[in-house]
Amino acid sequence: MIERETSIGVMDIPLSCSIFLEPALNKYVRNIVPLSQKTKKFVHEWNLALVDILKTSKYKVYLGDLGHKILTRTLSSDKFPIKCVESAKSVPLHSLHYALRFSESINFLVNKIKTNSDIKFVDFGCGFSPLAPVMQAEYDIEETYCIDYKPEIIEVYSIVSQKVSGKAPKSISWNKAKEMAVSHKLNSIVAMGVLPYMSLDDQVACLKFINAHFPHLMVEIKYNNNSATAGENVFDLKHLQRLRLSGANTSTLETTMIKNSLRYLHKFMCAMPRNKYFLENDRSLFFSR
Questions:
Q1: What is the H or E stretch that residue 56 is in?
Q2: Strand extents, DSSP E, 128-214
Q3: CA-CA distance, 238 to 227, in Å (whole number)?
Q4: Which residues contact 13 (CB under 8 A, 6 or more apart)?
Q5: Distance separating alpha carbons of residues 80 and 74, to the nearest angstrom
Q6: In what order do the strands lie in the sheet with 121-124?
Q7: Least enclosed by CB within 10 Å: which of 72, 238, 256, 268?
Q8: Whole-prediction pTM value?
């Protein structure tokens, strides 16, 4: 008997990232930056609204086999995401990654708000992450924007945000974001999980633009020290050395990347001491300023 290949829909991965984020924030609470109860409540309400929207016939068509499984089983039992984060094949590892990225992004932005009264922020590659809506609702950042290349995702994202908080970050393109950054209408960017979908040349161009025009930034890339096993669009040591970001504060940026990434790995290894995945395979590096 030939098994049917599992289909992956447009919204499957963004859905999994959001649904498994909430139980991961609880499971790995000792390994991540502390989050406010208000933020945790927002994430909970966000997922309730997201599931409620995606179960409608209009949006269900954008789900593949994986997305349908997550949706139907979550609707059947609110314990399903918790069980997945506890014991499903790869979910514990990836959900830890989601929790670390989300909490570090929140922490990064909150610290910027403490010293800057005029934060104009964009979440580049937002997917279904509640990051920007949390910052808009809880920290009252009016100049909040989001970018995603899939209009269907942005449509659902905006509906869910309106349903949870009564407002939604403004959707813009990357080209529009670049125009706004050059004219100082944007000064802060978080880009988690989006650059690795670009070619290395495009990633380098994007990183150099962000470094030159965004005073406040937190950006994730993928790195593998072994070029033979590095995935597509993943930096190896040679490509990373060639990057050599130009412009002001480059040394500070690269030093911070090392500190961020070591802190991330330390937290990951404390949470999963027996799992060497992010040491032996493609792993995340984080630039910030």
A1: none
A2: 144-147, 170-171, 188-191
A3: 9
A4: 127
A5: 6
A6: 170-171, 144-147, 121-124, 188-191, 216-223, 283-288
A7: 238
A8: 0.90
Q: Do the Cβ atoms of 171 and 125 come closer than 8 Å?
A: no
H or E element at residue 219? strand 216-223
Q: Say how far apart CA 55 and CA 46 lie, in whole Å.
A: 14
Query: Alpha helices, DSSP H only, in 62-124?
Result: 65-76, 80-87, 91-115
Query: What tokens does 40 get?
Result: 């945790």
Cα–Cα distance for residue pair 160/150, rounded to 1 Å? 16
- What tens digit of pLDDT does each residue of 112-149 get? 999 988 999 999 999 999 999 999 999 989 899 999 99
Calpha distance 22→163 (Å, rounded):
18
| Per-residue DSSP letter, 62 | T
241 CB burial (10 A radius; 0-12, 13-18, 19+): exposed
Q: Do 111 and 141 meet the contact criterion of CB atoms below 8 Å apart?
A: no
What amino acid occupies position 276? K
> Which of helix, strand or coil describes residue 15?
helix
pLDDT in tens, 149-180: 999 999 999 999 999 999 999 999 999 999 99
Give the whole-angstrom CA distance, residue 41 versus residue 195.
29
